[in-house]
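Q: Okay, next protein. This is ABC transporter permease from Streptomyces tropicalis. I've checked the sequence twice, so it should be correct. Can you predict the 3D structure?
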Amino acid sequence: MLAYLIRRLFAAAVMLAVIILVVFSIFFLVPKWAGVDIATSFVGKQADPAAVNAVREKLGLSDPIYSQVWEFFKGIFAGRTYAAGGDVTRCAAPCFGYSFRSEQAVWPVLTDRFPVTLALALGAAVLWLVFGVAAGVLSALKRGSLWDRSAMVVALGGVSLPIYFTGLLSLAIFSYGLKWIDAQYVPIGDSFTGWLGGMILPWITLAFLYAAMYARITRATMLEILGEDYIRTARAKGLREQTVIGKHAMRSTMTPILTMLGMDLGALIGGAILTETTFSLPGLGQKVLDSIKTQDLPFILGVTLITSVAVLIANLVVDILYAVIDPRVRLA
């Protein structure tokens, strides 16, 4: 197990370096090759030439590419100093960029919004795992029954309906119509019950979309596994049905579910843009949308990095869980 863990950690470290290099290329090299003035993108088209030249010098855009890459890497792990003449700006580690428009370092702003996005993603993930996997297993065990058909129709609706439609519909019914839930977001430090009330509808709305997908994949995987020889052998031995399903079938079923969970949860931690916008949640998704509107490139770059790292970490955790669920994976 230790050797497997070391291999996965080493692979994750290499992938992290590749991710940073790719993000740097997307935001600094590709625009340069396309003839775009990167300094103008960082300060805005309405900025005067002196401000643009100052940002160009601060970012070191005239330096060799390897020097720019090194400064970008170093900034993330050790901080960075942006200097142009006597104007010096310090960006503490981890430096995910600096917005010269708002005169703010990217990392503190994003970490202030990160708990909202994390709470949204984790709360919704618990709901869609519990209800989605349970519905998929029951549908597989009761194949062709009324429950199976009804659950799959609901799942099809959940996959098909856009999140902004179900979000606005839930607000119209439960918040504005029946007034059962106050959907106004309240920071958890101000009131836990107010925070919980403001998160319930976003959790349910987001979980409805993903639970539908997880129900369908769980049903399909479970039906395939129930036809395997080792399942028939376990039943022939006289094992109870609960043991056959819970100990044998579910272990194999969880593998594709964990794969999906790693990708979905990692992406959501980078910002659930539609959900946060629909429910006015001050998370990363809403921030990146605002940054796109105002063309505040450093914040877009920062959220891109956070999303990439979140997906990497989520998949690392999934790899470790693979080894726990199926010891054969440790030999891979």
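A: Here is a summary of the prediction. The radius of gyration is 24 Å. The mean pLDDT is 84.
Q: Noted. On to the next one.
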